[in-house]
Amino acid sequence: MVGVVIVSHSAKIAEGIKELALQMAKDHPVFTAGGTQDGGIGTDPMRIQEAIENADQGDGVAVLADLGSAVMSVDLAKEMIEPELSARVFLANAPIVEGSIAAVVEASLGSSLDKVLQTAADAKNMNKE
């Protein structure tokens, strides 16, 4: 099973996205790393590392992030985890809200990591007219 990690500068945003996603895919392994250790706005590579390790179910982890420095923190977190796991962790090129929901639903269907990442990325093309 593919795990999902949601990384945001805000713990409230990360938890809110998780709550939305789990409305459509209950009990799927979704973990968040929002905000800093002291509850502030920002990202923390150690919190992201822990979320990735918790999300790993053996089939890989899709990570979704909100802003540029979150992407840098994800990269740092990947450097801190075991190489075998790091090789199965990928940052989705996707919008954080739509991409996270799409990724969680796809992962809950038992899809491969590649399919989960592609489904998340496809959320960029969602027509909102």
UniProtKB/TrEMBL annotation:
Enzyme Commission designation: 2.7.1.121
Reactions listed under catalytic activity: dihydroxyacetone + phosphoenolpyruvate = dihydroxyacetone phosphate + pyruvate
Keywords from the UniProt entry: Kinase, Transferase
A Pfam match: EIIA-man
Any single Gene Ontology cellular-component annotation: membrane
GO molecular function: phosphoenolpyruvate-glycerone phosphotransferase activity
PANTHER family found in the cross-reference section: PEP-DEPENDENT DIHYDROXYACETONE KINASE, PHOSPHORYL DONOR SUBUNIT DHAM (PTHR38594:SF1)
Function: Component of the dihydroxyacetone kinase complex, which is responsible for the phosphoenolpyruvate (PEP)-dependent phosphorylation of dihydroxyacetone. DhaM serves as the phosphoryl donor. Is phosphorylated by phosphoenolpyruvate in an EI- and HPr-dependent reaction, and a phosphorelay system on histidine residues finally leads to phosphoryl transfer to DhaL and dihydroxyacetone.
Protein name (record): phosphoenolpyruvate--glycerone phosphotransferase
